[in-house]
Amino acid sequence: MDTPDNIRKLSINNDAREMLVRAREEGIETVWDRLAAQEPQCGYCSLGVSCRNCAMGPCRVDPFGDGPQKGVCGADADIIVARNLGRTIAAGASAHSDHGRDILEVFTALAAGETSGYEIRDEAKLLALAAEWGIETQDRGIAEVARELGDAMMEDFGSRKERVGFLERLPEQRKKLLDELGITPRGIDRENVEMLHRTHMGVDNDYANTLLHGLRTSLSDGWGGSMVATELSDVMFGTPKPIKSCVNLGALRTECVNIALHGHNPMLSDVMMQAAEDPELIKLAKDKGAEGINLVGLCCTGNELQMRKGLPMVGNHLMQELVLLTGALDAMVVDYQCIMPAVVDVAKCFHTEVISTADKAKFAGATHVSFDPRRGLEIGKDIVRRGIEAYVNRNPDRVRIPEGTVEMMAGFSVEAILGALGGTPEPLVDAIKAGKIRGAVGVVGCNNPKIPQDYGHVTLTRRLIENDILVLVTGCSAVANGKAGQMMPEAADMAGPGLAEVCRALGIPPVLHMGSCVDNTRILTLAAALANYIGVDISELPLAGAAPEWYSEKAVSIGAYVVASGIFTVLGVQPPIFGSQNVVQLLASGLDDVVGARFAVEPDPEEAALLIRRHIESKREGLGLPFIPADDIETEQVA
Length: 639
Description:
Strand content: 5-15%
Structural class: alpha/beta
Largest sheet: 6 strands, parallel
Strand order of the largest sheet: 6-5-4-7-8-9
Shape: globular
């Protein structure tokens, strides 16, 4: 059994530690236990030099020269590592882009009047998108415009176009470069299918060629499927504006029916919030002995609702088992992505009902309620009712909710940020030129149990804002920084003098919550807007990206499209590529000469902050802006 000291090493958060102690006391297995049981993990797989793409294998090659140097087909380490990485990018891009397609299909059904519980809540954004896509809006009804926009966006998923529509947001320099390299994304599904074709045995056996198509595939996600998801979610559910919320397991309420919304797609969770406000269901909850219905968020479904409605968050990826351990959760409603199958096993230790809703994401042992947008509100009410019925089975003696929540602010869409600046990037550009804001970094991505939960996110972010670098966060990173108290206007006290001055003047935090995982496209849009305003390529701006605790294939796609868009990106977890020095050289150095950006791997967030600071100062110097040496950074430990 782990000692208290060992448990402290698993997470920096007190609410997580309290639930981990309970898990040990009751013998309930968590993700950390399963990781320990897997040790030592396969070295060949960790280096990326194992291959099971055909039935002549599985094969492995020995990067140290003592064993096989080629697979049965003749593929060497370079080919095998590139194949594996290409397929990882395709899987991640497919996941986010399929999310985008789901949103698009509901949007088109809404435009046709075939849904229940949905409406167009931001008509101005709909009309702006239509104009961007060349669709006539004058003297036309909203539904008619929406139908034509939906049809146009659906074309981006096919194979008949030369480029995806949102690519027009890029600076001309970047569009020209992508064309010259032959990596302009043509269609979302097309690029993913071609990547799977290229990595079939006997097709693309040039590692550099394979990886260039990997960039193309990721771009079809970042400037295609994920951007469709973000923009149409804003149209249907409202474009986020700054809003206060709170985070921690303390958001659960002993006296209420507690229902957690977990996953990534806001289609169901939005109607769930409507259903939870239904007077008949509230009365039913009170008839069962509860004081009301309390919805809380997990992962990116929660982030979507927090951005728009201030939904309280109980945690990020590594909290999904721990929220069940409180004994106070009556239902966990899941859609897809980042949901551990183990939640069903942990829920069996309590009274919690796990309810799956996506037909593409069923969970053995869970109750499945097939989601249909034509009956969206009706299904939402049915699920809330199930949560109320489960409340009756709660054992009050087993309820242990950690005390307290932390206030945080969300809702920083591109529109909200530019609105706070008077509708133009000029004030932000002026602050960067003056050195009050030295640059900006997107700190994004998941939790990984190989790293103390949230340590990478919180430490890196703290070091950056201390040095007048604005931080933009999404997904699990947003929740981590919220827990650390870095996402309220008062957190300006943690920032350097220049950034603090700007934050106080605007009444904003130094760390801006921009949404869920797919909403990393907001960061792309903002970067493109700054580059277009100044008249430079994105690669010339003092920007960087970081994924300190990434684990998923989606994160690999995100990192690839950020680099392909011209933004230096630091990973905190080593990707499985180190079995090929040629692949490492290309990604960590050679891409600079190709797309103007590259990857770096640095597990220590203190050192990662130094890398990013040096990069930002070099970009400032390239633009002729004031320079401060990166070695001036202080690196005291975060408590």
